[in-house]
Amino acid sequence: MANRYLEIFCREAEEHLASLQSGLLVLEKNPARTDLLHELLRNAHTLKGSARMVGLADISAITHTMEEQLKGMERGERKVDAQAIDLLLRGADAVALITSALMRGEAPELDVERFVAEYDRGELGQHLTPEPREAQPEAISDTVRADVKTLDQLVNLVGELIINKKRLESKLDRLKEVTYALPAEHAAPLAEFRGDLEEDVLYLDYLIQELHGKAMGLRMLPLRTISDGLERLVRDLAQQLGREVQFQIVGQAIEMDRVLLEGLKPILIHLLTNALSHGIESPEVRAAAGKPRRGTVLLSARHQGNSVLVEVRDDGRGMNPAGIKAAAVSRGVIDHREADGLSDEEALYLTFRPGFSTAEIVTDVSGRGVGMDVVKKNIERVKGGVTLASEFGSFTQVTLQLPLTLSVLDALIVACGGETFAIPTTYLQEIVKVRASEIDTLGSGEVIKVRGATTPLYSLSGMLGLSARRETGDLPLSAVVLKHCDQRIACVVEAHLGYSEVVVKGLGKQFRNVRFLFGATILGDGNPALILNVPDLFESGRGVQRTPLSAEEVQAAQRRLKVLVVDDSITTRTMEQSILVSQGYAVVTAVSGEDALEKSAEERFDLVISDVEMPGINGFELTRALRASEQYRETPIIIVSSLSRDEDKRQALQAGAQAYIVKGAFDQGLLLETVQMLIG
Amino acid sequence: MGDDNSYDIRTILSQMREEYWQALAEEETEAKETVECLVFTLGGKRYAFETHYACEVIRVPKLVRVPAVQSLIKGIFNLRGEITAAIDIRPMLGLPQPEIGATGRILVVRGDNFTTGILAEAAHGVQGLCFENFEPFTSGSGTKADFVRGHFNLEDGNVILLDVEALLADPELLAGEA
C-alpha cells in the first residue's frame, strides 16, 4: 500500500467499526439502551473526521449519514428499531468493504457512488453483499501495533537498568579503593579481576544505551504522520472561506514522541483554522493592500537543542494590539487600568486568557472552535511553551516549543528547601548569580535585572512551601530564570547541581491533583527527585504564594560580599579571615601591598582591610593607589594597625581609608561592626 | 518401691490419649478462628491488619518531601522504580506521633487505586490472632474509630484491628492542597 496514512486510517477504522458493530448488535437486542448511542456517535464522528483527514470523501459521507441517524436516535426523533439499526449496520459494512479494499490496494466491490447516494436518502444499499467475503489470508505486515503503556513500561525498565548500571560503576570505584589498601601480592589478582569486570560493565553500558535509543525510537513518529492531513484541511477550508492560500510545510521528517504528536494535532488544526479564518484576508482585500492575492501559511518544524520548535506563520492581517485590548476589556478579562499598562507584545498574550475567545468558529472541518486558552492548556499538558509574534497588517507567527518526548527530559537539577528538584530545560532561560546590590524593590516584591529586563525574584522554596534549609554555607545566591509564554521569573535556589537527562516517572493516582509537580525521576544514588511543573509557578492567580526571599536568602545575597585582607603577618591574616568567613563574607588574602594591588585588579572586592607596616608599599600607599584606580575609588578601606598615634590615624584618613582600628584594642566585635557598617 | 511410686500404665495411657485428642480438638478450633495479621506499633499502641493487604515491610528509606501537600504525606520514596508515598496515618487515628526512629518501618499496602506506604514506629511480624479474643468496635467508647474494626484482647495487651479498606478509601490520603 502506497500511502501509509491510509494504512493508519484503515487500522483505526477497524477498531471503530468493530466497536460500532458490537454496540449496534447490543442495541438491536435492547432498544432501550440508549446510553450506548453516545459511544456509537463518537465512533462514527471520529471515523468521519479521520476519513476527511486522509481525503476519503465516500467514507466521510457514509459516516456523516450514520452520525445524523444516531443523533436523531439520541434526540428521540428517530425510532430505535431493527430497521434503523440495520441501516446503520449496512453503513458500517460499506465502510469496512471500502477500507479492506484500500488495504489490498484494489477497487471496492461496491458501487460506492451509488451506495453513498442511496444511503444518504436512507435506503438500504440492496446491492451491497451482506455476506462478508471469504476470509483473506492476512497480509503479513512488517509492523506490529503496541500499546503505548507497554512502551512506557519498556522505557521505564530501561531507566531502571541505567540506574542499576550507575550503581555497578560506583561499586567498581569502591573495589578500586579496596585494592589499593591491600598488600601487593593480593592486590595484583584483584586488580586484574577488577579490570575484567570494568570491561563487562562498559559493554553493559553500551548495550543499555543502544536499548535506550531503540526503546525511545519506538515511540517516535515523524511530523508527516499528522501534517499530510493538514494540507487537505487547509485546502478545503480555503475553498470554503474564499481565500487563496499557499500552504507550505517544512521539516516533515522531524520526529517526535507519538503521544506528543497526538496532542499536537488538535493544536495545529486550531492554529491553521485561525490562520485562515482570522489571518489571511480575502484576495480582494489583499490586492487592495498591495499584497499578493494569494496568502501564504507556513508550518515549519525544526530542532532546537533537545526540543522541537513548531511554527505556524501566516502573512495575513496580523494581530491588532489595540483591538485585542479593547476586546479583552469589553469581555471583562481585564480592566481599563490594566489594559493601559500593557505593552503591545503583552497585549497579544491576552488572547490566551480564559474568557477572551468568544468567536466560535463552527465549521464541519474543525468542529466547534475553541479559544486560544484551550490551545495554551493543551501545550502545557505536553510540557511545551508558546510564543506569539505579530505585526499588524503583515503577519502572525505562533511558535510552539515542545520536548522531543515526555518520557525522558533534559533537566537542570537544583537543590532547594533541602530537596533536589529537576527543572525541564524547555522552561529554563539561564542561571544567574544574584548580588544583594542588584536586588531592587518594586511594589511589595523584589526584582532583579536580567539582560536589561526587570524580572521578579522569588524564593523557590517559599513558592513551594518548603522551609528554606540553607546548608550551602557561603555559596553565593543562585537563581534560575524561568520563562513561560511572555513571562519571566527568577527563582532563588540553594545550588544548581548540573544538567542531566532524566527518566520521567509518573507519581501515581495518589498524586493526581498535586500541584507544582510533573513527575519524578530516580537519580544515580537511587533516591527520587521531583520534576517541577513550571507553568504552575507562573499561576499567581490561583493563590501561589509569590514568596519574597527568606531572611536566610537575603543574608546569603549579602554574604557573598568579598573582602580583601592584606597583612604580612600570617596570624593576623588568618584571624581576620576566619572572623569574616564565619559571618559569611568571602575572603581573599594578600601578603603585601603589591600582592593586594595585583589581586584587586583581578577581581572586584567590596571591602579592603589592610595593615600599615608591610614590606614594600605600606598600607597608606596601598590605600592611595586603590583610591587612584577607577574601580576602587569608592570601595571602603579599613586600616588595621598596631600604630595608635593620632598622626597615623590622620594619615590613614587622608589617604582615603574609612576606618582605623588599632590592633592593641582589636576585638572581633569591633572589626565586624565596622565591616557591617561599611558594607552591610 | 512402694505403691505410691508405682504407676498404672493404663491410666497414663488413657491420660495421654485424652490429652492428645484434646490438643487435636483445640488445634482444629483455633485453626478455624485465627486470622493472619501484620502487627505493628502506631502512637505507642499495637495495631494490626490482615496480611493480604500488605505487600511488604521495608526499612524507612530517604523520604523526599513533596511541596504543597497535606502534612500526612511525609514524602515519596523509590520502591524498586515505582514512586511511592510514605504516609503518617497517626493523626487520622487521633494518635500521638513519636519520632519514627531506627525501628521504624514502612508497611507497603496495595489499595484499589494506589499502593502506598504506611509509616509505623515498629513492625512485629505476622501473628495468627484468635477471633475468640476479638471485640468489634462499638460506638460510644469515646475513641476516634473511623478506621478501626475492633481489637483483640491478648494476654499481653490489646491489638487494634485497622480497617485498611476504609483507610485507603479516605480522600484525605489523596495528595492535594492542604
Automatic annotation (TrEMBL), chain A:
The modification Phosphohistidine is found at H45. CDD domains: HPT (cd00088). Residues 204-406 form the Histidine kinase domain. One of its GO terms (molecular function) is kinase activity. Keywords: Coiled coil, Kinase, Phosphoprotein, Transferase. The modification 4-aspartylphosphate is found at D611. The keyword Transferase applies. Residues 562-678 form the Response regulatory domain. Residues 1-102 form the HPt domain. Residues 408-543 form the CheW-like domain. Residues 151-178 form a coiled coil. Pfam families: CheW (PF01584), H-kinase_dim (PF02895), HATPase_c (PF02518), Hpt (PF01627), Response_reg (PF00072). This is Hybrid sensor histidine kinase/response regulator. The lineage of its organism: Bacteria, Pseudomonadati, Thermodesulfobacteriota, Desulfuromonadia, Geobacterales.
Automatic annotation (TrEMBL), chain B:
Pfam families: CheW. PROSITE patterns: CHEW. SMART domains: CheW (SM00260). Coiled coil: none annotated. Residues 34-173 form the CheW-like domain. PANTHER family: CHEMOTAXIS SENSOR HISTIDINE KINASE-RELATED, PROTEIN PILI. This is Chemotaxis protein CheW.
